[in-house]
Structure formats: C-alpha cells, structure tokens
Amino acid sequence: MSDRSPVKWKIAACCASALFGVGPVCVCAAPKAPSSLGSPAAAVPGEELPDPVAILKSVREMQASIRQTLQGKLRRGGRTVGYRMVMEGLQVRFEFPEAVDPNPQTVVLKFGEKESRLEVTSGLGPQRKVDFADEISGMGVNFEDLALRFLYWNDAVLEGEERLMLSKCWRIRVRRPADVRSQYAQVVVWVSQSNGAFLKSESFGDNGLLLKRLTVRSVQSIGQATTLKQLRIETGLKGEEPAYLDVDGQAVSRTAK
Q1: DSSP letter at 105?
Q2: Does the reported pTM lie above 0.85?
Q3: How far is residue 132's CA from residue 154's CA, in Å, rounded to a whole number?
Q4: Closest residue by Cα to residue 86 from 103, 113, 107
Q5: CA–CA gap between residue 219 and residue 228 (Å, rounded)
Q6: pLDDT digits (tens, 9 = 90+) for 60-72
Q7: Are 28 and 1 contacting, i.e. CB atoms less than 8 angstroms apart?
Q8: Which residues, 6 or more positions from 96, have their beta carbon under 8 angstroms from its beta carbon?
C-alpha cells in the first residue's frame, strides 16, 4: 500500500489472481496524491478517491490462495503453441511440452511482495539466464507480459473511469521505477470496479509509442472459480497479427495406470 498518504481501511477481499482468476474485491481509499503522470481523476468535495497503488495491490493479492491447473494454447496466425499452466500459490508454472531449444520448456513466475521474477528451464534441464523482454517461441508474447510486472510499480495515478466488457473500470497509469529494467516506460491499466479483475493494459516505450496492448476478451467458469478464457496480445506495429492466449479448461490430472 502506498506510503504517501494514511489509509484507515484495510483490504477485505481481493482478486484471486492477477490475470487468470477473478473474485470480489474491496480496495482501500485514500486522499488524492500528486503524481507526475497524466491527469488525475477529479475529486468530489468531501469524498476520498481510491488509492491507485492499493487497487493494483489488490489485483495481485491473494495469489497464494490459488491452486489450479489449466491447459491452453498460444496462437498467432497459423502457428499454435500448447501449454499447461500450474497455479501454485505464489508461483505460476508454464509448461510448453512441444518446445525445442533454445525455446524454454518450463517458465516459472514467482510473485513477491515488491516484484515478480522468473526462472526458465531449457529442454536439456538446467536453468538459463533470460530477460523479461525475451519472446516466447516467436509468438509476440514475452515473459514480462505474462508476469504483468507493472502491477508492482508504485508511481501510479488514477486517471478516471471507463467501461469495458460492460464493466465499470478504474483507469490507472503507472511509470517504471528507476531501479527496474523494462522495455516499457509507462503502462495504462484498466481494473474492474466490481470484482478487481485486470481487463486491459497499454504499454508505452521511452519514446511514448505504444508497444503492447493486452485485452481480456472473455472469461469462463471452471469449478467455483471465474477464470480467463481468452487474452488478446497486440503490438504497436501496424498490420502485425495479434497473438491470443486461450485457456481451454482444467487440465486432467496425470494418474498412474
């Protein structure tokens, strides 16, 4: 939670997962704080605006409560890469069984209090050094996109409200911290007010040009959880085909015969 202004309320319930699951959310409210980014939402006299840092924190909070294994595919044009996603609390493991070196077969995203980090295993087994900007199998998706690192950036301003997918959303702009290496200088994030779900982001480079747009296209119910069904990933290049991350459903547990 931001240390720029005192807050009286505590988060009561949060989004179950930053990207792949949604749930009820109650975000902290705080007095409007100044920021060097964008134009902050106008305050109604006598009312407090939600703290944008607290909103982003609520989106990634409670990750430890998720225990789910899903399967799906990354697709772009005529190419498809299957994956298996194992959600294990504070980490999410992506398995790409058909990947061949130098593409990774296993990517582990680990979520901490202040940052997310990743570990990658090649087809031969040992870990290898990678960068968040590395692209996955030429599919237009990099590890930074999967990790949603911008949810950890604390230089945030609430720009206002918009409606996406019939949901009233907070529009929040965040700027890259000085000690973080990222291809993105600032990111605009849309978060549902009703359930705290991440719905969209637009990431911009140092030159102010759009580099990546992530848009949740649809969600689905799996068991008791509401989970992502399709995410569209677009680059800022005109005419370039978008990629799609599809969640096909709950993976069947492997059992010994």
Answers
A1: S
A2: no
A3: 19
A4: 107
A5: 4
A6: 775 556 678 889 9
A7: yes
A8: 81, 82, 83, 103, 104, 105, 106, 107, 136, 137
